[in-house]
Write a structure and sequence with these properties.
The complex is a heterodimer of chains A (about 300) and B (about 300). In chain A, about 75% of the residues lie in helices and about 0% in strands. In chain A, about 45% of the residues are buried. Chain A is mainly alpha-helical. Chain A has two domains: about 1-50; about 80-300, Orthogonal Bundle (MetI-like fold). Chain B folds into two domains: about 10-60; about 75-310, MetI-like (MetI-like fold, Orthogonal Bundle), CATH 1.10.3720. The longest helix of chain B has about 40 residues, at about 20-60. Chain B is globular. Classes of the chains: A mainly alpha (about 300), B mainly alpha (about 300).
């Protein structure tokens, strides 16, 4: 009966509260909780298992004890990784790449989205569609020609970009800019036109209209786009795998996979610790800014 | 809401009729400003997306040392190889099975979350979206460890019930199952979130009206929920089809295409040939085989997005 009381409070309109009906609802609610628990376990097993393994010593991992439980928790894996220069280099490279890519992405996509949403010009509608189409072109289609392009460019100009972490600053925007532009077009288009008309009448330039009115009003959209750009550049795996090979140029995902796996020897304690530390920044952002994260996720298909 | 079509210049035109020259330069400046604002975007897309896409076609017509034009010889060579047909088969199995199960699971879970009182929804949604937030390369490592041949935690658990050890990544059929399972785990939360947003946008009155007409839950689902969600289901499914078909991370880390090339999909095989095997033209040819399916999905998405734009 306690459960029926809670739905009464939460969704008063949807619960008529008559005898058989509320009994049905109570049953439906119990089943919902039951299945949600199963799905939540399914979702959380891999990250939790990462955590469990990261707290084990290699002796405990190779002993045939219950793998789901830590009997002698130790932080040695964390200490080893966080004091290893190699791992810190990966972390530093990943952080640099992500921060720069987010900045570049926002500098390109916010003005472009403003122009496409508000300043109708020749070909602007086609360009907006083109931006969306670009978003649908996957990285797995472009990595071979891009690799060859940069190799040819290096031979031709003498500027060697392959196997430098900053080559990723040029390539990642192809993944982030189209989506961010697309969702920013949606956010900008939802701002009432009276606002910018008033600004223009008051003598503001287009640039001032963008910085003084559109960016503050569309701030939730900008935060959502920033989070998207950050998670994409932090998680990207294919491009760094193709473009960087030297140990000091690797970003976190590739670094963990290429250096911690040595031949057939898997140091699982350290691999799981590295994976957990690599997953931490997006998870922390998600924990604090979940609503913006979800807004960005759903905006791609619901806006525009 | 009445949408007044935006007429640039209309507001300014009335007082400024006398000095038409000033208005003309302002209009000229406006399109100039707009062009400058979109220029970085145009350059980026042109140089790093459109050009490489066509360059891939050019590369595919060269021989291995990239000095001689060989026409369609690369494609002919691929069509004669058994591994290629294995990759085509596995790519289709992988993408279709994974997308269908992701959509079904997402739909079911979204309904359960929607059933729960509004206060608790945030907590459940937060937990269920975690797989989507973790970088796939990192979470696939956790799965690889869960599937480990000698220390698999799943096999340990199955062993408690007397079930034999399963060769998760060692046997071709099980390896195919495993990569699909991991992909479903990773992608289902995306569907869940999209469907949840769509479910919340269905007006309650429709369900009330259906209840008064005596509809059971199945009829409500079939005649109210599904038609209202049709567009979002189509867009999400097509979008996920593109992403899943072009997947790389999960297969690469979990099985690297093995055992005996049975889990290779286009992207991982193109990487193996083009980058690891340094046969760039052949690798480019392999990845180009993705284009027809991606193009069909993209056309349908574009149609649906436009339809959606016109409705609102």
């Amino acid at each position: 009966m306690a459960s029926t009381l809670t739905i009464d409070k939460a969704a008063p309109r949807r619960n008529p509260g008559y005898g058989s009906m509320s009994r049905d609802r109570a049953w439906a609610l119990k089943w919902s909780y039951f299945f949600l628990t199963i799905f939540a376990i399914f979702s959380l097993v891999p990250p939790l298992y990462m955590l469990v393994t990261s707290l084990k010593s290699s002796q405990e991992i190779s002993a045939a004890t219950n793998p789901w439980w830590v009997f002698h928790p130790t932080l040695s894996n964390y200490i080893q990784l966080l004091t290893s220069n190699q791992f810190l280099t990966f972390f530093f490279n990943s952080a640099m790449v992500s921060i720069f890519v987010v900045t570049i992405t926002m500098l390109i996509s916010v003005p472009a989205a403003f122009a496409l949403a508000r300043m109708r010009f020749w070909g602007s509608a086609t360009l907006a569609t083109g931006v969306f189409l670009t978003y649908l072109i996957p990285d797995t289609l472009l990595f071979i020609p891009l690799f060859k392009m940069f190799a040819t460019f290096g031979d031709w100009s003498g500027i060697q970009l392959i196997n430098r972490w900053y080559v990723l600053l040029i390539i990642y925007p192809t993944l982030t800019v189209p989506f961010c532009t697309w969702i920013m077009i949606g956010y900008f288009a939802s701002i009432p036109k009276e606002l910018d008309e008033a600004a223009i009448i008051d003598g503001a330039s287009w640039f001032q209209t963008l910085t003084r009115i559109f960016i503050p009003v569309a701030l939730p959209g900008i935060i959502a786009a920033t989070i998207f750009a950050f998670t994409v550049s932090w998680a990207q795996f294919l491009y760094p795998l193709v473009f960087t090979t030297s140990v000091d140029q690797l970003v976190l995902p590739v670094g963990i996979i290429t250096t911690l796996i040595k031949g057939d020897v898997f140091n699982w304690g350290q691999i799981m610790t590295g994976a957990l530390l690599g997953a931490a920044p997006p998870l922390i952002i998600y924990a604090f800014l979940m609503d913006y994260y979800i807004a960005g996720l759903t905006a791609g298909a619901t806006k525009g | 809401m009445v949408d007044i079509p935006y007429q640039p210049g209309r507001v300014a035109a009335a007082p400024a009729r006398r000095r038409r020259g000033g208005l003309a330069t302002m209009m000229k400046r406006k399109s100039m400003v707009a062009f400058l604002m979109t220029l970085p975007l145009i350059v980026l897309i042109g140089v790093l997306v459109v050009y490489p896409a066509f360059y891939a076609v050019h590369l595919a017509t060269l021989n291995k040392s990239m000095q001689r034009f060989v026409g369609l010889a690369n494609f002919q060579f691929l069509l004669k190889r058994d591994t290629f047909w294995l990759v085509v088969q596995q790519s289709c199995i992988f993408a279709i099975t994974a997308v269908v199960f992701k959509a079904l699971l997402g739909f079911i879970v979204a309904h359960f979350v929607h059933n729960v009182p509004a206060k608790g929804q945030r907590k459940w949604r937060g937990m269920l979206l975690v797989p989507w937030v973790i970088p796939p390369a990192m979470s696939t490592l956790a799965w690889l460890w869960l599937f480990d041949p000698s220390y698999s935690a799943f096999n340990y658990t199955l062993g408690l019930f007397g079930a034999g050890p399963i060769p998760w990544t060692g046997d071709a059929a099980w390896a195919r199952f495993s990569v699909i399972l991991v992909n479903i785990w990773y992608g289902a939360p995306f569907f869940m979130i999209m469907y949840l947003a769509a479910l919340k946008s269905v007006p309650d009155q429709l369900y009330e009206a259906a209840s008064i007409d005596g509809a059971n839950w199945w009829q409500k689902l079939w005649y109210v929920t599904l038609p209202m969600m049709r567009n979002i289901i189509a867009i999400t499914t097509l979008f996920s089809l593109i992403v899943t078909f072009a997947n790389f991370d999960i297969v690469r880390i979990l099985t690297a295409g093995g055992p005996l090339d049975h889990t290779h999909i286009f992207a991982t095989w193109a990487f193996k040939i083009g980058i690891e095997g340094s046969d760039i033209p052949l690798g480019a040819s392999v990845s180009l085989f993705m284009v027809p399916i991606l193009a069909v999905a993209a056309i349908f998405i574009l149609r649906d997005v436009h339809k959606r734009g016109n409705e609102s």
